[in-house]
Protein backbone atom coordinates (compact mmCIF):
# COMPACT_ATOMS: atom_id res chain seq x y z
CA UNK A 1 0.00 0.00 0.00
CA UNK A 2 2.70 2.47 1.03
CA UNK A 3 4.88 1.44 -1.90
CA UNK A 4 1.98 2.01 -4.29
CA UNK A 5 1.30 5.43 -2.73
CA UNK A 6 4.97 6.37 -3.03
CA UNK A 7 4.97 5.44 -6.73
CA UNK A 8 1.88 7.56 -7.30
CA UNK A 9 3.48 10.51 -5.55
CA UNK A 10 6.75 10.08 -7.48
CA UNK A 11 4.80 9.98 -10.74
CA UNK A 12 3.35 13.45 -10.12
CA UNK A 13 4.65 16.01 -12.55
CA UNK A 14 5.28 18.42 -9.69
CA UNK A 15 7.68 15.99 -8.01
CA UNK A 16 9.54 15.34 -11.27
CA UNK A 17 9.89 19.04 -11.99
CA UNK A 18 11.09 19.87 -8.50
CA UNK A 19 13.73 17.14 -8.71
CA UNK A 20 15.15 18.68 -11.87
CA UNK A 21 18.71 19.96 -11.48
CA UNK A 22 17.80 23.00 -13.58
CA UNK A 23 15.24 24.14 -11.00
CA UNK A 24 16.40 26.83 -8.57
CA UNK A 25 15.16 25.87 -5.12
CA UNK A 26 15.56 29.36 -3.62
CA UNK A 27 13.26 30.84 -6.28
CA UNK A 28 10.69 28.16 -5.44
CA UNK A 29 10.78 29.16 -1.78
CA UNK A 30 10.38 32.85 -2.61
CA UNK A 31 7.48 32.02 -4.93
CA UNK A 32 5.83 30.00 -2.16
CA UNK A 33 6.19 32.91 0.26
CA UNK A 34 4.64 35.19 -2.36
CA UNK A 35 1.57 33.04 -3.02
CA UNK A 36 0.94 32.23 0.64
CA UNK A 37 1.09 35.90 1.63
CA UNK A 38 -1.34 36.92 -1.14
CA UNK A 39 -3.79 34.07 -0.49
CA UNK A 40 -3.90 34.74 3.25
CA UNK A 41 -4.12 38.50 2.70
CA UNK A 42 -7.24 38.11 0.55
CA UNK A 43 -8.97 36.31 3.43
CA UNK A 44 -8.50 39.47 5.45
CA UNK A 45 -5.52 38.11 7.37
CA UNK A 46 -1.83 39.06 7.16
CA UNK A 47 -1.64 42.83 6.68
CA UNK A 48 0.64 43.83 3.79
CA UNK A 49 0.34 40.32 2.35
CA UNK A 50 -0.52 41.97 -0.95
CA UNK A 51 3.18 42.81 -1.25
CA UNK A 52 3.57 39.22 -2.37
CA UNK A 53 2.52 40.51 -5.77
CA UNK A 54 5.66 42.69 -5.85
CA UNK A 55 7.67 39.56 -5.10
CA UNK A 56 5.96 37.75 -7.98
CA UNK A 57 6.90 40.62 -10.28
CA UNK A 58 10.57 40.49 -9.32
CA UNK A 59 10.62 36.70 -9.77
CA UNK A 60 8.95 37.00 -13.19
CA UNK A 61 11.47 39.59 -14.28
CA UNK A 62 14.30 37.35 -13.14
CA UNK A 63 13.04 34.22 -14.91
CA UNK A 64 11.90 35.83 -18.16
CA UNK A 65 14.91 38.10 -18.29
CA UNK A 66 17.13 35.06 -17.81
CA UNK A 67 15.64 33.34 -20.85
CA UNK A 68 16.22 36.36 -23.06
CA UNK A 69 19.72 37.11 -21.72
CA UNK A 70 20.71 33.55 -22.56
CA UNK A 71 19.86 34.24 -26.20
CA UNK A 72 22.03 37.35 -26.18
CA UNK A 73 24.99 35.55 -24.62
CA UNK A 74 24.76 32.65 -27.06
CA UNK A 75 24.33 35.08 -29.98
CA UNK A 76 21.04 33.46 -30.87
CA UNK A 77 18.35 35.74 -32.36
CA UNK A 78 15.46 36.48 -30.02
CA UNK A 79 12.31 35.25 -31.73
CA UNK A 80 9.59 37.54 -30.39
CA UNK A 81 6.61 35.56 -31.66
CA UNK A 82 7.93 32.23 -30.46
CA UNK A 83 8.73 33.69 -27.07
CA UNK A 84 5.25 35.20 -26.76
CA UNK A 85 3.49 31.98 -27.80
CA UNK A 86 5.58 29.94 -25.37
CA UNK A 87 4.54 32.25 -22.54
CA UNK A 88 0.98 31.97 -23.82
CA UNK A 89 1.01 28.20 -23.43
CA UNK A 90 1.86 28.76 -19.76
CA UNK A 91 -0.51 31.64 -19.00
CA UNK A 92 -3.55 31.60 -21.28
CA UNK A 93 -5.13 28.12 -20.83
CA UNK A 94 -5.41 28.25 -17.03
CA UNK A 95 -6.37 31.92 -17.17
CA UNK A 96 -9.25 31.53 -19.61
CA UNK A 97 -10.52 28.40 -17.88
CA UNK A 98 -10.63 30.42 -14.67
CA UNK A 99 -12.41 33.37 -16.30
CA UNK A 100 -15.13 31.21 -17.85
CA UNK A 101 -15.61 28.59 -15.11
CA UNK A 102 -15.18 31.21 -12.40
CA UNK A 103 -17.85 33.36 -14.04
CA UNK A 104 -20.17 30.36 -14.14
CA UNK A 105 -19.55 29.63 -10.45
CA UNK A 106 -20.17 33.24 -9.44
CA UNK A 107 -23.38 33.28 -11.48
CA UNK A 108 -24.61 30.08 -9.84
CA UNK A 109 -23.64 30.80 -6.23
CA UNK A 110 -23.26 34.57 -5.84
CA UNK A 111 -26.18 35.93 -7.86
CA UNK A 112 -28.18 36.57 -4.68
CA UNK A 113 -25.56 37.20 -1.98
CA UNK A 114 -22.99 39.10 -4.09
CA UNK A 115 -24.28 39.83 -7.60
CA UNK A 116 -21.47 42.30 -8.27
CA UNK A 117 -19.01 39.38 -8.35
CA UNK A 118 -20.30 38.18 -11.70
CA UNK A 119 -18.69 39.73 -14.76
CA UNK A 120 -21.48 40.77 -17.18
CA UNK A 121 -20.96 39.91 -20.83
CA UNK A 122 -20.59 43.55 -21.83
CA UNK A 123 -17.69 43.93 -19.38
CA UNK A 124 -15.79 40.70 -19.95
CA UNK A 125 -13.68 41.94 -22.88
CA UNK A 126 -11.26 43.80 -20.62
CA UNK A 127 -10.54 40.53 -18.83
CA UNK A 128 -10.25 38.51 -22.00
CA UNK A 129 -7.81 40.90 -23.64
CA UNK A 130 -5.69 41.76 -20.59
CA UNK A 131 -6.42 45.44 -20.16
CA UNK A 132 -8.48 45.27 -16.96
CA UNK A 133 -5.70 47.04 -15.06
CA UNK A 134 -6.33 50.24 -17.05
CA UNK A 135 -10.12 50.39 -16.73
CA UNK A 136 -11.08 50.98 -13.09
CA UNK A 137 -14.79 50.59 -12.34
CA UNK A 138 -16.86 48.48 -12.18
CA UNK A 139 -15.14 46.15 -9.72
CA UNK A 140 -15.70 42.39 -9.57
CA UNK A 141 -13.55 41.58 -6.56
CA UNK A 142 -13.29 37.82 -7.17
CA UNK A 143 -11.70 38.51 -10.55
CA UNK A 144 -9.92 41.83 -10.21
CA UNK A 145 -6.71 40.31 -8.89
CA UNK A 146 -5.94 39.53 -12.55
CA UNK A 147 -4.67 43.11 -12.87
CA UNK A 148 -1.25 41.67 -12.05
CA UNK A 149 -1.51 39.18 -14.91
CA UNK A 150 -2.30 42.08 -17.22
CA UNK A 151 0.94 43.72 -16.08
CA UNK A 152 2.89 40.55 -16.74
CA UNK A 153 1.25 40.00 -20.13
CA UNK A 154 2.24 43.52 -21.19
CA UNK A 155 5.73 42.80 -19.87
CA UNK A 156 5.95 39.68 -22.04
CA UNK A 157 5.40 41.93 -25.05
CA UNK A 158 7.63 44.87 -24.12
CA UNK A 159 10.67 43.05 -22.76
CA UNK A 160 11.45 40.85 -25.78
CA UNK A 161 10.94 43.86 -28.07
CA UNK A 162 13.60 45.69 -26.06
CA UNK A 163 15.94 42.71 -26.38
CA UNK A 164 15.32 42.43 -30.13
CA UNK A 165 16.14 46.13 -30.63
CA UNK A 166 19.34 45.93 -28.56
CA UNK A 167 20.40 42.69 -30.24
CA UNK A 168 19.97 44.13 -33.74
CA UNK A 169 21.13 47.72 -33.40
CA UNK A 170 23.75 47.91 -30.64
CA UNK A 171 27.27 46.52 -30.65
CA UNK A 172 27.85 46.65 -26.90
CA UNK A 173 24.74 44.67 -26.02
CA UNK A 174 25.62 44.13 -22.36
CA UNK A 175 26.09 47.85 -21.75
CA UNK A 176 22.81 48.84 -23.36
CA UNK A 177 20.90 46.05 -21.60
CA UNK A 178 22.02 47.40 -18.23
CA UNK A 179 21.34 51.02 -19.23
CA UNK A 180 17.87 50.12 -20.54
CA UNK A 181 16.91 48.27 -17.38
CA UNK A 182 18.13 51.12 -15.17
CA UNK A 183 15.99 53.51 -17.23
CA UNK A 184 12.92 51.25 -16.86
CA UNK A 185 13.37 51.13 -13.09
CA UNK A 186 13.63 54.91 -12.93
CA UNK A 187 10.64 55.33 -15.26
CA UNK A 188 8.45 53.05 -13.16
CA UNK A 189 9.16 55.08 -10.03
CA UNK A 190 8.67 58.36 -11.89
CA UNK A 191 5.36 57.21 -13.39
CA UNK A 192 3.99 56.48 -9.91
CA UNK A 193 4.89 59.97 -8.78
CA UNK A 194 3.37 61.57 -11.90
CA UNK A 195 0.20 59.48 -11.57
CA UNK A 196 -0.27 60.64 -7.99
CA UNK A 197 0.39 64.26 -8.76
CA UNK A 198 -1.24 64.79 -12.14
CA UNK A 199 -3.97 62.20 -12.82
CA UNK A 200 -7.57 62.40 -11.75
CA UNK A 201 -7.68 58.84 -10.43
CA UNK A 202 -4.45 59.16 -8.39
CA UNK A 203 -4.06 55.41 -9.01
CA UNK A 204 -0.47 54.24 -8.80
CA UNK A 205 -1.24 50.59 -8.05
CA UNK A 206 -2.35 48.58 -11.05
CA UNK A 207 -1.30 50.24 -14.31
CA UNK A 208 1.57 48.49 -16.05
CA UNK A 209 3.74 51.59 -16.39
CA UNK A 210 3.46 52.17 -12.64
CA UNK A 211 4.62 48.65 -11.74
CA UNK A 212 7.21 48.03 -14.44
CA UNK A 213 10.08 48.88 -12.09
CA UNK A 214 9.34 45.79 -9.97
CA UNK A 215 9.69 43.55 -13.02
CA UNK A 216 12.80 45.44 -14.12
CA UNK A 217 14.51 44.74 -10.79
CA UNK A 218 14.14 41.05 -11.63
CA UNK A 219 15.56 41.59 -15.11
CA UNK A 220 18.49 43.46 -13.59
CA UNK A 221 19.15 40.51 -11.31
CA UNK A 222 19.08 38.15 -14.31
CA UNK A 223 21.73 40.34 -15.99
CA UNK A 224 23.94 40.28 -12.90
CA UNK A 225 23.60 36.50 -12.64
CA UNK A 226 24.45 36.09 -16.34
CA UNK A 227 27.35 38.53 -16.63
CA UNK A 228 28.75 38.65 -13.08
CA UNK A 229 27.86 35.25 -11.55
CA UNK A 230 30.78 35.24 -9.12
CA UNK A 231 29.41 38.37 -7.42
CA UNK A 232 26.59 36.26 -5.96
CA UNK A 233 28.77 33.40 -4.76
CA UNK A 234 30.89 35.17 -2.15
CA UNK A 235 29.48 34.25 1.26
CA UNK A 236 30.04 37.66 2.81
CA UNK A 237 28.45 39.51 -0.11
CA UNK A 238 25.36 37.33 -0.32
CA UNK A 239 24.78 37.58 3.43
CA UNK A 240 25.02 41.36 3.22
CA UNK A 241 22.67 41.41 0.25
CA UNK A 242 20.02 39.18 1.82
CA UNK A 243 19.99 40.79 5.25
CA UNK A 244 20.10 44.30 3.78
CA UNK A 245 17.01 43.43 1.78
CA UNK A 246 15.30 41.88 4.79
CA UNK A 247 16.04 44.88 7.02
CA UNK A 248 14.86 47.28 4.31
CA UNK A 249 11.65 45.28 3.85
CA UNK A 250 10.87 45.24 7.58
CA UNK A 251 11.73 48.93 7.98
CA UNK A 252 9.47 49.83 5.04
CA UNK A 253 6.55 47.94 6.57
CA UNK A 254 7.09 49.41 10.02
CA UNK A 255 7.26 52.92 8.60
CA UNK A 256 4.09 52.25 6.57
CA UNK A 257 2.24 51.43 9.79
CA UNK A 258 3.43 54.68 11.37
CA UNK A 259 2.74 57.15 8.59
CA UNK A 260 -0.41 58.26 6.80
CA UNK A 261 1.58 59.88 4.01
CA UNK A 262 -0.18 59.27 0.71
CA UNK A 263 3.08 59.86 -1.13
CA UNK A 264 4.78 57.11 0.85
CA UNK A 265 1.99 54.55 0.51
CA UNK A 266 1.30 55.20 -3.17
CA UNK A 267 4.79 55.88 -4.49
CA UNK A 268 7.65 55.01 -2.16
CA UNK A 269 6.36 51.77 -0.61
CA UNK A 270 5.90 49.96 -3.93
CA UNK A 271 9.19 51.37 -5.16
CA UNK A 272 11.23 50.30 -2.12
CA UNK A 273 9.68 46.85 -1.61
CA UNK A 274 10.70 45.43 -5.03
CA UNK A 275 14.25 46.65 -4.39
CA UNK A 276 14.28 44.84 -1.05
CA UNK A 277 13.14 41.65 -2.81
CA UNK A 278 15.85 42.17 -5.42
CA UNK A 279 18.43 42.21 -2.63
CA UNK A 280 16.98 39.20 -0.81
CA UNK A 281 16.65 37.03 -3.92
CA UNK A 282 20.13 38.02 -5.05
CA UNK A 283 21.55 37.07 -1.69
CA UNK A 284 19.78 33.71 -1.58
CA UNK A 285 19.95 32.82 -5.27
CA UNK A 286 22.79 30.27 -4.97
CA UNK A 287 21.62 28.89 -1.63
CA UNK A 288 20.35 25.31 -1.71
CA UNK A 289 16.87 25.37 -0.20
CA UNK A 290 15.75 22.05 -1.67
CA UNK A 291 15.03 20.69 1.81
CA UNK A 292 11.98 22.97 2.00
CA UNK A 293 9.99 20.42 -0.01
CA UNK A 294 6.51 21.49 1.04
CA UNK A 295 7.14 25.12 0.21
CA UNK A 296 8.51 24.10 -3.18
CA UNK A 297 5.39 22.05 -3.87
CA UNK A 298 3.28 25.08 -2.99
CA UNK A 299 5.37 27.10 -5.45
CA UNK A 300 4.73 24.59 -8.22
CA UNK A 301 0.95 25.07 -7.92
CA UNK A 302 1.16 28.81 -7.26
CA UNK A 303 -0.16 30.06 -10.61
CA UNK A 304 -3.50 28.29 -10.44
CA UNK A 305 -3.72 28.98 -6.71
CA UNK A 306 -3.33 32.66 -7.47
CA UNK A 307 -6.07 32.49 -10.09
CA UNK A 308 -8.68 30.59 -8.12
CA UNK A 309 -8.37 31.57 -4.47
CA UNK A 310 -10.35 34.87 -4.36
CA UNK A 311 -13.56 33.43 -5.76
CA UNK A 312 -13.93 31.20 -2.69
CA UNK A 313 -13.49 33.98 -0.12
CA UNK A 314 -17.03 35.35 -0.21
CA UNK A 315 -18.70 31.94 -0.17
CA UNK A 316 -16.66 30.57 2.73
CA UNK A 317 -17.01 33.70 4.84
CA UNK A 318 -20.74 33.78 4.11
CA UNK A 319 -21.20 30.17 5.25
CA UNK A 320 -18.65 29.91 8.08
CA UNK A 321 -17.54 33.43 8.91
CA UNK A 322 -14.08 34.92 9.01
CA UNK A 323 -12.13 33.01 11.65
CA UNK A 324 -9.19 30.66 11.93
CA UNK A 325 -11.24 27.57 11.10
CA UNK A 326 -12.66 29.15 7.96
CA UNK A 327 -9.15 30.29 7.00
CA UNK A 328 -7.88 26.70 7.23
CA UNK A 329 -10.83 25.39 5.21
CA UNK A 330 -10.26 28.12 2.64
CA UNK A 331 -6.55 27.29 2.31
CA UNK A 332 -7.20 23.57 1.87
CA UNK A 333 -10.05 23.95 -0.62
CA UNK A 334 -8.35 26.56 -2.78
CA UNK A 335 -5.06 24.66 -2.82
CA UNK A 336 -6.79 21.45 -3.89
CA UNK A 337 -8.55 23.38 -6.65
CA UNK A 338 -5.16 24.73 -7.72
CA UNK A 339 -3.72 21.22 -7.85
CA UNK A 340 -6.68 20.02 -9.93
CA UNK A 341 -6.45 22.75 -12.55
CA UNK A 342 -2.66 22.60 -12.66
CA UNK A 343 -2.83 18.89 -13.52
CA UNK A 344 -5.78 19.12 -15.91
CA UNK A 345 -4.95 22.36 -17.69
CA UNK A 346 -1.51 23.81 -17.02
CA UNK A 347 0.49 20.59 -17.24
CA UNK A 348 -1.40 19.46 -20.34
CA UNK A 349 -0.62 22.61 -22.28
CA UNK A 350 2.96 22.71 -21.06
CA UNK A 351 3.41 19.20 -22.42
CA UNK A 352 2.00 20.40 -25.75
CA UNK A 353 4.45 23.30 -25.67
CA UNK A 354 7.33 20.92 -25.05
CA UNK A 355 6.13 18.72 -27.90
CA UNK A 356 5.67 21.43 -30.52
CA UNK A 357 8.00 24.23 -29.42
CA UNK A 358 11.60 24.06 -28.27
CA UNK A 359 12.81 25.94 -25.22
CA UNK A 360 14.77 28.36 -27.39
CA UNK A 361 13.31 31.76 -28.14
Can you describe what's shown?
With 361 residues, the chain is mainly alpha-helical. 72% of the residues lie in helices and 0% in strands. It contains 15 helices and no strands. Helix 3 packs across helix 12, helix 9 (208-227) runs parallel beside helix 11 (262-284) and helix 14 (313-320) runs antiparallel to helix 15 (324-356). It is globular. The chain starts with a helix and ends in a 5-residue tail after the last helix. The mean pLDDT is 92.
What is the topology?
Blueprint: H1 2-10, H2 13-18, H3 25-41, H4 52-73, H5 80-109, H6 125-128, H7 147-169, H8 173-198, H9 208-227, H10 235-258, H11 262-284, H12 293-300, H13 302-308, H14 313-320, H15 324-356
Helix pairs in contact: 3-4, 3-12, 3-13, 4-7, 4-9, 4-11, 5-7, 5-13, 5-15, 7-8, 7-9, 8-9, 8-11, 9-11, 10-11, 13-15, 14-15
Helical/strand content category: mainly alpha
Main beta-sheet annotation: none
SSE ordering: HHHHHHHHHHHHHHH
Radius of gyration: 21 Å
Compose a concise summary of this entry:
This protein has 361 residues and is mostly helical. 72% of the residues lie in helices and 0% in strands.
Keywords:
361 residues, mainly alpha, globular
Amino acid sequence: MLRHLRKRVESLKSVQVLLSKDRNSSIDVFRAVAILSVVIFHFNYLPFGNLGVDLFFVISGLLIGGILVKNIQQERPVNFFKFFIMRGFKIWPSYYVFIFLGSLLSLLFYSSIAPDQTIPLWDIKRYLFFYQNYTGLPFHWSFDHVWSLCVEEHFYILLPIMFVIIQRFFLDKKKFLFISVYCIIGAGILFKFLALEYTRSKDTYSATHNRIDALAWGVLLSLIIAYYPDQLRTTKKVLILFFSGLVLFIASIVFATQTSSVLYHKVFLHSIIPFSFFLMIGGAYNTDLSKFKYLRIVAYYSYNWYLWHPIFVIGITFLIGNNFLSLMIYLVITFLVAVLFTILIEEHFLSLRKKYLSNET
